[in-house]
Structures
1.
Amino acid sequence: MENDNNIVSIKIGGPAGTGVKSVGLMLAKIAARSGYHICDNTEYPSLIRGGHNIMQVNFSTEVVTAPSLKSDLLIAFDQLTIDLHSDELHSGSGIVYDIDANLDLSKIGDGVSRYGIPLKKLALEAGEKNIFVNIVALSAATGLLGGNLETFKKLIEEEYGDKGEEIVNADKKAADLGYSYAVENYKDDLRDYMKVIDSFSSPISYMILSGNEAAALGAISAGMQFAAIYPMSPINNVLHVLAANQEKFGFVYKQPEDEISAINMAIGASHAGVRSMTATSGGGFCLMTEAYGLAGITEVPLVIIDGMRGGPATGLPTWSGQGDLQMVLHAHQDDFPRIVLAPGDVEETYYMVKDAFHIADKYQTTVMVLMDKNLCENDRTMAFPDLSKIEINRGKFTKEKIDDYFRYKYEDDGVSLRSIPGSGNFFIANSDEHGELGYSTEEIEERNKMMGKRMQKLITCEKEDMKDPVIYGPENADITIVSWGSNKGSIVEALKSFSNVNYVHVTWMNPLPVGFLTTILSKAKHVIDIECNYTGQLADLIREKTGINIEDKYLKVDGRVIYPEEIVEKLNTVKGVKK
Amino acid sequence: MTLEELKTPYDPNWCPGCGNFGIWTAEKNAAVKEGWDNTNTTTVAGIGCHGHIVNFIKLTSFEGLHGRAIPVASGIKFANNRLNVLVHVGDGDCFGEGGNHFIHACRRNHDLTVILHDNSLYALTAGQTSPATPKGMKTKSSPKGSTDDPVFPMALAITSGATFVARAYSGDVEQLTQLIIKANKHKGFAFIDVLQPCVTFNKICTSSFYKENTYYLDESYDPTDKQAALLKAQEFGEKKIPLGIFYKEERPTVESAFPQIAQIPLIDQEPKLDSLTDLFKKYI
């Protein structure tokens, strides 16, 4: 039942509201605690209850970076799941379903093991209410996969402990019943794919994090002290993590009346001296656009997270997209120094969001962190970071009274000493063009100098902080893929099938590493641009800045993950590709 | 700071006779009387003629965007609740684009002093109707007279939850000074609607109009009676424009709902990262 690449893929499907996501995450945790790397993918419609939800959990002894089109075990809570996903099963895979539910299994292929389990019956045996079906199914799957029942029961205690002893005991009983039934009735067809790895010495060294959680933890780790975020899919979990942890970590999270208020509040708090942030999706950022440049001209440090989904307008609220790149590069009238970063996985998100606060402080401007829904909401294992090395550097910043203070003093690097209201230092943070103290001005020389000072910050940033893209695969290759964001995982997985293909993972969008991109893209015999938007917005950016026109584009706008298999199929059509 | 120390190198560029001079003078007087300076006070302004005030008074300030002064001020207060935060807004600025922010800031009872420069029209863009323009008044954008009923700033503030609601006339600098001081001392969202003439564009709401038609609420008026305040707030017309404190209520501010800033302002705290490891372990 394993794929060629040593990755096991489990898919759970059912109606929204049946706990697909919560048991999927538990499955991921059992695997992670048994020594496996995991990567999951969640798909759901824009509904709270009803509609079809799935979660796929892939795990492997190697780092696993992408979901897959094929599944090795399908846990089906309803007929729709069987109908929609039976073609993802293959000879040697299996399906877990309720044996008493009269389901039509005619679409299930011959080589697929049929693990019928009396899910509802066992659930009712465990507790009065019919709420333990998913626990029975997951424990049965755990038994079938050789997973550790005790790890599962410990997770039940952790996850449901606050619901009271009665619930926890019923959940545990459900787990026992499902596990035993599966192991006893299918003892000739058990797998060992989730057995505890013997050499796995440190069972607590990997966390399971979504991009949203990584972003929130990155912000907290950076000493962020104020966040104003208006709810919007897919970044809601950023604010959930922040709201729940604010008192303990001594920062303030405030839900404002709209996104306009969110960004203006964050600007106010940052102007007053604390590290501040906001987060939204593309539609919310449209409202923030007005204040994007306000932070630019007042030189207020600000971290903004944009979790992209398909658009325009309401678009595909619960599906992914990468169509905001050109918007965040150009939104707002006229020029100001905007730094735009785009992490490609959970770990990059954590470190990049943390760095974003340092960069925002250093250059006293906006740092946009562009994420996509698949990155925001899908989980990955991430090595526990070294939390002893946290340094907070506020850049050119003082709370002390300074003689002859000029807030916007002309400096060669473009960055002046920042101070705050209440420090005794007088200045005006002025949305009007201004001179060195902040007084409004329309004088030609002052305008030219101040505009130049602000824009100089990007040149300094390019020299001191901008990072070149990382190349995955061989340093020199005939075929080079260029992409960004969460596509990274599937591309890296697809590269394993080829010997002469590499991947340039772009994370700095502005400033853009023009020299590096020009060199690497000129070397390749064939370049492919892979993106989840209609026009190839990164390819356009690269052409604008380097003059290199990438003609071969693989673009996807359906909101779904780009699967490794799809990239392999695409590469197989390219002349000169080698296995 | 003395009046001399509050001076900046720039003289106000408002039209001679503009009501903003009165507000400017009253704020400076209040600052001198109360010892407001750059260690304890900051100002925020929106965009319109009123917003220029930041250039003419030497208090550290933030001049934001049209309609957005209140959320910027709210953020400042969250970051540093030790500061007096004085917010200047215009009637177009605050009730046009800023209407949503105004309602919610009242509701949350942010501890801010919001001074409305109310000249009943857009002046910086040269004389169009604002949400506060009286119905029927002719402006450049309503040559046959404004078709819309105006907002009632006082009633809107009271019903939205502001806890200090007052009205002043920019020509009575002494009374306005006292009101600004009282508003600032009030713990919560304090709103002063300052009626001011626009000598250039508003030919109806002139200085003489206000002098003839305003009166001060007397001592028999009870500003804690919300129903009475609401009726008073809708009183407007010939000889019938009340001035003074309409409504006052003690209610916890939104800032006081955050224990993390109850003792020390955020700006004076180091980020608390001691329990970071525990938080991260929850994700294992």
Note: The two ends of chain B are 56 Å apart (CA to CA).
2.
Amino acid sequence: MEEYLYATARVKALEIKLISQNLTERLLDAPSAEETAKVLSETEYGSYFGEIGSVYNFEEAIYKHLKDVFRIIDDSTGNPDFTRIFRYKYDIHNLKVLLKASYIGESYEDILIPIGTVEVERIKKTVSDKDFSELPAFLKDAAHEAVAGFELNHDPQYVDFILDRYLYSKMLDTAKRLGDFAEEFVKTEIDLININTFLRFRKIGISSSRLKEALIDGGYLKPSFYVEYFAEPLNSFAESLSVSRYDRVVDEGIQKWIVDQDATQLEKALDNYLIDLAKQGKYEAFGVKPILGFLKAKDNEAKLLRLIFVSKINEIPVEKIRERLRDTYV
Amino acid sequence: MEITLGQFIALLGAALAVLLPGIGSAKGVGIAGESAAGVVTEDPNKFGQTLLLQAMPGTQGIYGLLTGFVIMQKIGLIGGNFLPLTTYQGLLVFSSALPIALVGLYSGIAQGKTAAAGMGIVAKRPEELAKGITYAAIVETYAVLALLASILMLFGIKF
Amino acid sequence: MKTNVNPTRMELTKLKKRLKVARRGHKLLKDKQDELIKKFVDLVKKNKELREKVEDELSSALRNFVMARAVMSKEIVEESLMYPVEKVDIDVETGNIMSVKVPKIKIHKKKKKASDNKYPYGFANTSGELDNAISILADILPDLLELAEIEKTCQLLADEIEKTRRRVNALEHIMIPELEETIKYISMKLDEAERANITRLMKVKEMVMEKSV
């Protein structure tokens, strides 16, 4: 198994620059979004926030930073599979936007995210030409199936379902090439998404036939598991999950969800579970774990900053932000 | 001068005593160096500290060379008076070279990895460099023990 | 007005007729105004209740939106919502309250396809907080349209009440008093003419009597 000595050492050096608990507190204490950006200026994000002008464009700074992080990891590992696991979702996002935009007949270019594995322009061209053969195989197949699916029932949700299924199966394939830990990571992510999907379906009362479409295959828990429990009381679902590897999710999120059906705690518990898994990377000297862990940490950091900035801009009280704060990697 | 099988075997021992720990050290230093480069890419100020760690797996090669010299001394290769060793004498010399040869090879690589892991410590907490060095130094113990064993054996052999 | 009329008996009859019409009109308009105000007060009460309800729900939907936005990126939120599942057509018809034309809004939900789904996005990269916002918004749409209808009706009624009030006032304070005054003036003029006539007759009678004596 490859050990990625150079990359892991570099990642270790980069880990100390991740946003710490301490800094998070200072970001929360800042009285305004502008002040928050000022606190960030002493971190790695400083230069990116310098470029964007208005603090309202904070997403742009985050994406630019992520793009550079991806480049560092690609260069230092010499294996693009690591970042692919985190970048495919942007390809799929762009494909979703462009497909839907073509159905509406409007341009939605400002919500494309330019940090996927395929340049935005290339996807744009294939969608406008209605010829997907230029795209990488998985995007091509995904696009074909999504188009066919949409023509069948004109429901935009199916477009998302189909593309998400392709996304995670591709992520899983890529992860398998990186070994057991990466595979476990993606499988866990799939399970966590399915658990959330299951509970959301229960809450909003959509039929179980649609649930089958929404579930993603490839996790440790098979889609049939969720379908089976769909008509059962939630407690029995929680019970059977609590004897699986997701017992902590049940304790920290699902128990409370059964009482108040509040997404906040649940999603925090789900996210924390994956972060916790990624944290193994912190205690490992070489190999796949520290690199994947670091990428997840960056992914998580983007979420953290987004949460803080949106909240600061909209003057949301700090305790509301705290409720949603995920654990940090460092 | 007639060359005996004993002479050949003894020389083979000397060669292995230099060769294997050398490979181990090279590999170990390489591992540590690769890691060091990763740290220095992000923080060039840590060059000195990483260099210290990188050098640690290099000792096995030196021990091997030392053992090789002692063997050459012993069999009279240095000084020009190559002793006409019997096959058994040659095997004795060869056996005494084994500890440092094998332990040097593996401990060199192992120490390289420990040193590389120590780079992670340097990357995150440069003030804890000493601890990283200690971890790597503990691997060194076994190389030293092997060297000691090889040297004692060699001194014990009387022709 | 009183000066430029012919103080004739015919005019007097005409004016009296007009006064009668004015008084009846005044009473009718007054009744209409009362009824309008009653309707208006009812509607305003309903409007207030509905508005408070809608505002409550809208602000909770918006709170949910902001929180959803805080846990999802801008691009993903927008992508999730860019293609609507439901289309709502609105027919606006005219209703009638006390001969005031008011709008009646009718909603026709046009689903793309018969399904129970009001969420246009997938679940993998979206947050449950977005579901809450969408669900609240979908539920308050009928209320929102009813509120629009009632608010417009209130506005139209208020206009009508104002107009009626002006008419009632014009009748009450200007037209009727003026008519009454004119009638009084003509009666007085006529009476005076009568008296003059009598005096003249008496004078003539006197003269005739003198001659005959």
Note: Chains B and C do not touch (no CB pair under 8 Å).
